[in-house]
Amino acid sequence: MLQGSLEDFALEEILSLLAETSKSGQLDINGDRGNGALTIRGGQLADARASKCDVSAEPEDVMFELLRYSEGSFVFSNQDLELTGDEKNIGGVLSVAEGRLADWKAIAAVVPSLHHMVVPSVELPKDEVTIDRSEWAVLTVVASGCKTEVVCDTLELGEVEGCRKIKHLIERGLLELREPGSTPAPEVVFSEEKKPSDPPEEYAADSKSGGGVLSTPAAEPGVSGDSLVASLRGGTAEPLETTPPIPPSPLAGNGSVATAEPLAEESGDGEGLLMRYLRGEED
After folding, report:
1. How far is CA 148 from CA 64, 116, 135, 138, 171, in A?
2. How far is Cα of residue 183 from the mean position of the Cα atoms in its chain?
3. Whole-angstrom Cα distance, residue 188 to residue 98?
4. What is the extent of the structural domain holding 23?
5. Residue 229: φ, ψ to 5°
6. Where are the beta strands (DSSP E) in 128-274?
7. 122 & 165 share domain
8. Can you list the residues of the chain whose pLDDT is less than 50?
9. How many domains does the chain have?
10. How far is C-alpha 148 from the chain's CA centre?
11. Is the pTM of this model over 0.85?
12. Helix, strand or coil, per DSSP, at residue 31
């Protein structure tokens, strides 16, 4: 029989020793997170169970849970067990579990426990943020504030994945973590510097008129409607080449109507045909 404390011998060391000596038996573990049992056959892992894992959990999941025991005791009892071919290499299982443990330590550095309060950030780190469907689900559960374990349980994510998502949102500045038992809802207080500023004068003037939108300036004489629209839209399009119609004017002598089309100048006296025509002179 082999027994001792997890503070003196790490679980990895114990399993490595059992694998190297090709031992068979059962390793019982009692720790601060619960208890577990590992069945060893010929130095290989035949079965793994832990109080916080489902009976259908994979050996890697159970090993990850047992590696999280920070204190406790262990007892290994020798038994005569034959290999069945379903056993797993202890080193391979340990390698996967240790990788998950390293990932968990990074998460726990931001979200230490399921009892810490998580609340929405009072102020976003930037003007616009983009969130995906899973992040939005976390935010809706958090609402005005709740325990970390509420998020994990409500979304059925489990401790590791739930805390991972909370950690991600905290690092993005969308959530804040508070000590267990703290007030859920954050107090939103605007400082003098962060109070919403007054709208520009042109918007304020328009709102008093009840219009709700910027009023359209009146068209200036001689400016076509298309030019006005282009200027309102900030465009640079040139106005259409349209000539305003000239009202008919009775002319002296023959009562004809002048056209808007200019006439060529005469080479004789320098007066254009139009001027002579307006004066009632004959060609």
Report:
1. 21, 6, 14, 10, 15
2. 25
3. 42
4. 2-108
5. -65, -40
6. 146-147, 175-178
7. yes
8. 186-196, 199-200, 202-243, 249-268, 270, 274, 283
9. 2
10. 19
11. no
12. strand
